[in-house]
Amino acid sequence: MGAGHGHGHLTGSPSSHAGGRHRRRLAISFVLVAAFFVVELVAGLWSGSLALISDAGHMAADVVALGAALIATKIATRPDHTGRRTYGSYRAEVFASGLAVLLMLGVSAYVVIAAVGRIGADVSIEVGPVLVVGVLGLLVNLIALLLLRAGARESLNVKGAYYEVLADTAGSVGVLVAGGLVLLTDMVVWDTLVALAIGVFVAVRAVVLGRQVLAVLGQHVPADLDVERLTAELVALPGVADVHDLHVWTLTSGMHVATAHLVLDEDPATDSHGVLVAAQRVLRQGHGIEHATLQVEERPTTDCHEVTW
C-alpha cells in the first residue's frame, strides 16, 4: 500500500493564470481590430479588391478569436463552485485556441477558392482606397502585436490571438504590395495572386497552432520536458529505489501536471515525507511542474502492475 501522498496546488486567480495576466491587452487589441474590421470590409467592397476583402475576412476571424480568448481567460480564472470541475476551467483557453484554428482554416479556404475563381476574370479595382486602408491596417496590427507579444510566450490562448494578428499583419503587407503592383502595372491579377498567398500563409499558421492545441488535448508530454531525465532525477533521490506510473501533461498554458509512484528503498530509516518534499522540489524547480500528485510506496503494489496504461 502507499505510504503517503503529496500534492501541489492549483489556483484560480488571474495573476496565477498565464492568459489572465494579459487579459487587459487582449481587450485593447480586440477593440482596435474590431473597429478596423468594419473599415476594411467597407473599403474592400467599395474598391473591389479581393486582397482587401480577404484580409477583412481574416480580420473578422481575428475579432472572433480575440473575443473568444477574452471569454476564455475570464472562464479559466473563475472559481468552481459546483465541485464538479476538480481541475477548474483552465482548458477553456485551449478550446478557444482550437476555435481560432478552425476560423483561420475557414478564412484560408474561402480566400483560396475566391482567388482561383477570379483568375482570368475581367475585374477592376480602386487602388487608392486599397493603399490607404492597407497602411492603416498595418499600423493597427503592429500595435496589437506589441500588446500581445509578451502574453504569446506564456499562454496558448494568447498565442492563438497573436498568430491571428501576425497573419493579418502579413495580410496588410500583402494588400499594400497588391495595390502597389496594380498601380504600377495596371494588372489586376496581382491583387488575386496576393490574396491567394495570404490564404496559404494563414493556413500554414493555423496548422502550426492546431498541432499545439491537439498536443494539449491529447495530454502529450510538454515539448520542453524530457521524461527520461525527470525519471532519472527522481530515482537518484535519497531513499528512492524506483519510479513508475509517471505521467506528465499540460492542463493549460504554463500549467504542467504530473503524477508518479515512488518506491522507497529497504532502509528502515528512510523518511517518506522527506522523499515527497524532495521529489516535489525536483518537479517544481527543475521542470516547472507546480502541481504534482505523488504516491510513496514501501514496495510496488499488485494494483500498479495490473494497470496497463
UniProtKB/TrEMBL annotation:
Coiled coil: none annotated. It holds the Pfam family ZT_dimer. Its main location: membrane. Residues 27-217 form the Cation efflux protein transmembrane domain. It is found in: Membrane. It is a multi-pass membrane protein. Belongs to the cation diffusion facilitator (CDF) transporter (TC 2.A.4) family. SLC30A subfamily. Keywords: Ion transport, Membrane, Transmembrane, Transmembrane helix, Transport. InterPro entries: Cation_efflux, Cation_efflux_CTD, Cation_efflux_CTD_sf, Cation_efflux_TM, Cation_efflux_TMD_sf, CDF/SLC30A. This is Cobalt-zinc-cadmium efflux system protein. The chain crosses the membrane at residues 26-46, 52-73, 94-116, 128-148, 160-182, 188-208. Residues 223-298 form the Cation efflux protein cytoplasmic domain. It comes from the Bacteria.
